[in-house]
Design a protein that fits this description.
About 70% of the residues lie in helices and about 0% in strands. It is mainly alpha-helical. The protein has three domains: about 5-70, Multidrug-efflux Transporter Regulator, Chain: A, Domain 2 (Orthogonal Bundle); about 75-135; about 140-245, Globin-like, CATH 1.10.490. It has a two-stranded antiparallel ribbon. Helix 5 crosses helix 11 and helix 11 packs antiparallel against helix 13. The model has no long low-confidence stretch (mean pLDDT about 85). This is MerR family transcriptional regulator.
Amino acid sequence: MGLQVKELANLTGISVRTLHHYDHIGLLVPSTTTDAGYRLYADADIAKLQQILFFRALDFPLKEIKRILASPDYSTLEALDVQRSMLMERRAQLNEMIETIDKTIRSKKGEFAMSNEERFKGMAFKDDTYEQEARERWGDAPIEESKRRVESLSDAEQQALGEEWERIYRKLAEVMQTESPESARSQEAIAEWFHYLNANFGTYSKAAFAGLGEMYVADERFTKNIDAYGDGLAVFMAKAMKEFGRLR
């Protein structure tokens, strides 16, 4: 049936005014209207609002959220993976800062002498790798650039690109038979995949590469295609890519 604006506001804890604003700027427009003229938010609208609020919690501006959600390359599952990675990274930093505060309190009480390095542990105010990747991931520019790269190749070059893809996957399937994802040989093989993607299909940081590996097992379409080279290859690659990303 759907929810009216007041019902959705009560469910989510955000104000009716905020929902009206999202409607006004075209970010979240109710999908249906009752015979009485009441506008209703369908399940798809509610799921979209969840995505909006996750992005807002991560300090994305509304204009940027609207652009991301409208991207033809947007995937809710991929977005959730990226959002989770961002939140995990933020949680780790907050835990370090809390630990620093606790140590500072103990230091002020004279329990021990605190070094200058310890005073600033956890205060890494640098660009967030995951956030930057998320902001760029669903833009039109990377998509068009990838298409241009492939379309600019000759038939022979495109064939060579496909053959290299096949070679890397066959090698990974072979390595999987005797090696763990963390072994030196596995990491050498997965590094080829990392460099192949960056050379031909856009720019991946190691963190984004690890996130892509998570998609290989989270999305059945990826898993099915990858496992065609060997049962369990998607899981193997995801673990190897996570290890590769950890060593950044």
